[in-house]
Amino acid sequence: MKRTSLFMVIILTLVLVLTACGGGTAGNTAGVTSDKESAASANGTSKTDSGNASTSSTATSSSDQGSNEANTTTAPSITSNSDGSFVVKNAWGETKLPASPKKIVTLHFSFTDELVSLGVMPAGIAGSYKAEVLGYLKDQVKDYTFVGNHQQPNLEVISSLKPDLIIANADVHGAIREDLEKIAPTIALYTNGYGDMEQNFAMLGTLLGKEKEHDQVMNELNQNIEQTHAQIQGKPKVIVVKALEKNFYIWMKTSYIATLLEKIGAEYSFDENKSSQQQTPGKIDVADVNLETLVQENPDYLVIYGAKADLDKWMNNSTFQSIKAVKDKHVLVVNDEIWALGKGPLSGEEILKEAIPFFTK
User: Fold this and answer.
1) What is the pLDDT of residues 43-99, one digit of tens each?
2) Residue 201 DSSP class
3) Which ranges constitute the DSSP H helices of the chain?
4) Judging by beta carbons within 10 Å of its beta carbon (0-12, 13-18, 19+), is residue 261 exposed, middle or buried?
5) Could you give the CA distance from residue 3 to residue 226 in angstroms, rounded to a whole number?
6) Are 180 and 168 within 8 A, CB to CB?
7) Strands 145-149 and 124-127
8) Positive or negative, the Cα torsion across 50, 51, 53, 55?
9) Around Cβ 61, how many Cβ atoms within 10 Å?
10) CA pair distance 237, 350, nearest whole angstrom
């Protein structure tokens, strides 16, 4: 009996030891899961705000994920909480909004274009030295307050509007970030490639409860892009430049206009990564180049804008006339408000209207 009792004690001890080991393994597995959840939460995949249930989405188009035409590392995302509040992840961090904003100030043309596309009128608009509102939007924008030039907006005027939200350009307004954030919740977005526009527009559609309007606008735009692509033969080389008195600004391959032109089947031939010409300090998405660089690029098609005197000067320059696009009469003089400044879905539609006859003539 003693031997039997001793044997049973040994068996019971082994069972307890094995059970404890199994419990340790389960605990470690739970720890791994918890770590993954923490990482996901840190990346904005799963969020909660003050105990409120929430849903999160990253405002990217499936066709542009991983594309170099958008700032994928700083793609805006939005979390909708059950209490009606939002958290918008943007280039300046996370911005909390107690509700969907009603009074919005836009500090870049692209954001104005996007809001108007959704049927939302900005309370305050930053413009250019030439115009408060870009020409192609004038008939659609009513009852707004001009808050100054987009590069140096008037903070006092912005503050007087008591906005619910300020939308800033991440590349332009860093120096006044603190001033803007003292006035109202502020989000900063990039406006470089076409993919940036898609991301920003999707986020704003969600934030403003305009998902249906967003989808309708983008479906029509993407359909027009596909139709334009189908009409363009081959892969014509094209560049877009601004003519100045002594030189040119050439738009980079990652810019809105370059990435849009590539979407319709053209090859944007200027690549800043393969060129000695780099981005011009103080300028977004453009490089300061001389005539020799344009001649070396020798595009099939040339899109150009600038002051009439500068355009006339270059058109009569014999070296400029040696460029293939000029010799073949494949030069399109355009409105910079549409081709260079707008950077939104509405300006995109206007560009496509001009692109079809230009590339198919």
Assistant:
1) 333 333 333 444 555 454 433 333 445 665 578 999 999 999 999 999 999 999 999
2) H
3) 2-42, 109-117, 155-160, 177-183, 194-207, 211-231, 256-263, 291-297, 308-315, 324-327, 336, 345-360
4) buried
5) 86
6) yes
7) parallel
8) positive
9) 17
10) 21
